[in-house]
Amino acid sequence: CWALPTALLCAYGFFCSVRPSEPFLTRYLLGPHKNLSETQVFNEIYPVWTYSYLVLLFPVFLATDYLRYKPVVLLQGLSLIVTWFMLLYAQGLRAVQFLEFFYGMGTATDVAYYSYIYSVIDVNLYQKVTSYCRSATLVGYTVGSVSGQVLVSMAGWSLFSLNVISLTSISIAFGTAWFLPMPQKSLFFHHVSSQHLSWEMKVMDCKNGSAVQDHPNVQRAPGWEDETKVPLNREGHSAEKQSMWERKVDIVKVLKDLWRDFLQCYSSQTMLCWSVWWALSTCGYFQVINYAQALWEMVLPSHSTEIYNGAVEAASTLLGAVAVFVVGHIKTSWAMWGEVALALFSFLIAAAVYIMDTVRNIWVCYASYVVFRIIYMLLITIATFQIATNLSVERYALVFGVNTFIALALQTLLTLIVVDASGLGLDIFTQFMIYASYFAAISLVFLGSGIYSITRAYRRQEQMQSRS
């Protein structure tokens, strides 16, 4: 039965996302509960999340598949419990840095949530279940942000109390995860042969629930993430009757296959183009959202006035979801105009970040942040569509993992140079000026590439017409 595991996983996703204290994290760390300095928080604590996420991503990617999802779902819940317990009671710089490591682990294990359900349901339920799982996290995040804002602004609750609520909600999620049935299949290590699966794969977009039915002879690519898409196997195949030992794949063989697929995937110019944008833009996106609260704190110190971080996070999430839904119904030739569109919207992102940095008004900062998130969510969805085309299940999972890893590697380098106290340790306003310049550079690169591609396409068309 698909209903029970789906309901349990959606409950887990909802409660895991209800964290009313998260939009006020910077204010909490700088306040009397932790009594940390701005330099400690911005330049010594926040970078730890980036480093830990990068280090854990690839091992978690393999462990999730090898352990068949559920143990990693439990690990995520446990990591978040440790994170919020330490937020409540840990004191001192080193303790909070250690806390950030566990938060990085919780982020890296997100993949297990988005990939679990497809190993225990029938393929014809992918679209419905995908929309349920994604909606559960969006609703949970929105409920957490709104409730946090209401409790702080109207009820006068302390940030410590918000962290207690967050810990309670995550603990409920962790308890729920124990009741999830253990899957018997996974993508790489415990799978049925691709010959049995090729006819039943679909492309699933987790942001809007849309699906594209595959041609019987073409395998397309599910994957996972904020842009999560995941494949799974149909029950009833004779391969399921094999013993676990027979279905296990040697890890060396898996790694060799991954390397071969990596070389084949990125030999495509179109794939390379969209993947480059994905990695570059995701690096900048992570950096901006990680330090947005720090910028707001410097623009308008929270100890002296009311702040509306929770409302802004909720609004940006909901409007971003609407934008993603709309773009799923836009029909255009992304193969022809995709690079120019990426250049244009990347420039708008650069403008939004620049305005956040230079116009020292909190409401302008809030509005620019909302625009920033909407545009990114829209573009990353388009990139997902383009990358998914004509890829097999395994190859999409690989491309998604590689692109995310490259984004984190770039972010780590940027953090080490710009943010970390052992590097330049720049102030927050200078950092955001660099981020705006970063997105402007992305825009120029793709504008040049787009103009070149369009010119070449028209010349090729003219040559074909002259020959005919």
Summing up helix and strand content along with how strands pair, one would put the structural category as mainly alpha
Q: Which strand order do you get reading across the main beta sheet?
A: 1-2
Uncertain spans: 193-248
Output the helix-strand order: HHHHHHHHHEEHHHHHHHH
Work out the helicity level. over 70%
Q: Which range does the strand content fall in?
A: under 5%
Shape annotation: globular
Counting DSSP E segments of at least 2 residues, the number of strands comes to: 2
Q: End-to-end span in angstroms?
A: 59 Å
**Largest pleated sheet:** 2 strands, antiparallel
**Arithmetic mean pLDDT:** 80
Helix segment tally: 17
Compute the CA-based radius of gyration. Answer: 22 Å
Write structural notes for this entry.
With 468 residues, this protein is mainly α. Helices cover 71% and strands 1% of the residues. The chain has helices at 3-17, 25-30, 38-66, 70-89, 93-108, 110-116, 126-153, 159-177, 194-197, 244-247, 251-265, 269-299, 309-327, 334-358, 362-388, 393-419, 428-467; strands spanning 202-204, 211-213. A hairpin with a 6-residue loop joins strand 1 and strand 2 (211-213).
